[in-house]
Amino acid sequence: MAITVKNPIVEMDGDEMTRIIWKMIKEKLLLPHLAIDLKYYDLGVRHRDETDDRVTIDAANAVKEHGVGVKCATITPNAARVKEYNLKQAWKSPNGTIRSILDGTVFRKPIIVKNIPPAVRSWRKPISIGRHAYGDIYKSVEYKVPNAGKAELVFTPVSGGDKVTLPLHEFKGPGVIMGMHNTEKSITSFARACINYALGEKSDLWFGAKDTISKTYHGFFKEVFDREAEAKKAEFQKFGIRYRYMLIDDAVAQIMKAEGGMLWACMNYDGDVMSDMVASGFGSLGLMTSVLVSPEAKYVYEAAHGTVMRHFYEHRKGNPTSTNSVASIFAWTGALSRRGELDGTPAVVQFARRLETIVVETIEAGTMTKDLAAIAEPKPGKYALTEEFIDTVAKQL
Length: 397
Prior knowledge:
alpha/beta; 15 helices
């Protein structure tokens, strides 16, 4: 008898190899056991192109309505991808669009498996990454300078005050310009979300920026974090944890010597890069959970990795692949667990947790994809193909 998921989950389909895995997970692990209403949005790059990216906005607004979404990895097209898929333009990152609409914070945490030891010897506990999910280069305005000229930064107050003009650069020839922004509201939401997460996990909170160089932009982030952390100082002391501010380069150096167990809050670009570094250090991007949490407690779960393009090209040729599906499975279980918690349906939560346990036990029993087999201790005699791993989990489930 199928377990009923009381309220809908917003499903956002994706691209390439992860799209193929997504379909397998639904058909083999979820739909045979669950009665679920999925509000489906196709965020594949071709459909985003057909809708002028309106589908991404609609999906984000659907998450606002229903509260929980789950997203497959998607292509953010560069010039080569525009040509490959014959797109109208190089559309912006769908993740960036969704993050902007929800004004959320992305938290990423590694999945710990006993026989996949961390590459960094000192890491013994999970390192969570809190990534600011608004602004910076992901909402930047860019211009390719064709020839000599003057670039300026201009701010015109709505109130009718004096216009502020700052010289940016005097170009003697071609170059490029990028303008970035952020808001106090979004930075404050980010700081509070990270503080609440750290208090909930009873873990130290690190925040790193480069205020020695960017005294105003990065300095404003530090100012907000310091203010919000000071307001929660008593709670930090109660749990025996602390807030630490470091220059981002110092944080990178120290993270390599730490044992883990902290939440590392990062600005948008830093979080994008450092979450991949931490995931790789703990074994694989395929062993990293990711959730976007909005200030209004709306959630989007996804895998931390991309669309696995190289495997997709092999699959398209008819060649077998061994693509890690763990993070995609955990995206679904994260969404199901949250949906069950919000709906008060413990059977849904139990199903999600059971599926997670089976996935980890399957790897620890020696059945794993090629990326994990290469770093497992002891190494398995052979690695599992993409569908073979999912079939093994399905059999246990």
